[in-house]
Amino acid sequence: MTDTISRDVTAAAPAATTKSARTPDVTRRRISVPHLLLIPAIAILLIGMGYPLVWQIVTSMQEFGIQQQFGKPADFVGLQNYLTLATDPTMWQVVGRSLLFCFITAALTLIVGILLAVLMTAVGRTARLTLQISLLLAWAMPVVAAMTVWIWLFDDRRGVVNYLLDMIPGVDMNRFSWLSNPLTFFIVASVIVIWMSVPFVAFSAYAGLTQVSDEVLEAAQLDGANGAKRLRYIILPMIRPVIMIVLLLQLIWDLRVFTQITMLQDAGSKAGEFDLLGTYIYKLGAGSQDFGMASAVSIFVLALTLAISWFYVRSLLKEDEQP
């Protein structure tokens, strides 16, 4: 009996060894299939974004003007374009103006969007559907069409805004030009950018609010928490991941805003005091034909965007490290 059991164990041992030896190969084969499926997407991403990025970096280290557009070899200047930008006060004025505009508009967009999302959860079905359709129509409107309407609203001669404000006793807004002064220019630009961005924030925040448990809110209400406290201590912490990604996207989009500023400049003034980073790069490249300097500013904006995004990435890494 003992000999029989020993023979069975001895016979089973090679089979078990063979099975365990084959297991890593099978696992390796299974793991390699998803990686192979990712190769086309990665290749398209590298070709679509990698080549323009490399071209921008190379051009930013060259003296690339209008002559180079017709085939003349570009002179390599190394980091000279970056050094010139670093000592240019106009460049830093544009950077400061762009960052201030970016943070103000992104913060206001986030606040208004969250308030609208909370409103959608509080009102009835008909009011909520009306609000959602209105936001969707505002979001779906083409930028050029929307800008045409906004420019007409703030027109100094036939604008509805001046007409309504002029009806207030003691307020003289007759032929007031909103787009001729940098302060009022960027106030108008902020209103337009916020109006165009609020629907995205509102819908994203509303999607997060639908995941908040009603039982938790009812328990907090029974414990004496009013609406403001429930919003601050329960709702906002629970939708914090949604708020963070939406805020990051808004900061990136508002930092690179171009179309709205360009069309407002076409209707008002094109002076340097009205420039943000997008229009500043466009003027260096298409206007002054200095593509080397324009590429250097573009790479700086990319680095600035990565620096802003790093705070979000770092928070994600910390959350992944938590058990």
From TrEMBL:
InterPro entries with a match to the protein in the record: MetI-like, MetI-like_sf, UgpAE/MalFG_permease
Highest taxon above the source species: Bacteria
Keywords on record: Cell membrane, Membrane, Transmembrane, Transmembrane helix, Transport
Membrane topology: Multi-pass membrane protein
Coiled coil start-end: none
Pfam name, any one: BPD_transp_1
Start-end of Low complexity biased regions: 10-23
Region (Disordered): 1-23
UniProt-listed Gene3D superfamilies: MetI-like (1.10.3720.10)
Record carries keyword Transport: yes
Membrane-spanning residues: 36-54, 98-123, 135-154, 183-209, 230-253, 291-313
Compartment(s): Cell membrane
Principal subcellular localization: membrane
Domain ABC transmembrane type-1: 95-312
Family, per entry: Belongs to the binding-protein-dependent transport system permease family.
Name of the protein this chain belongs to: Sugar ABC transporter permease
Organism: Agromyces humatus
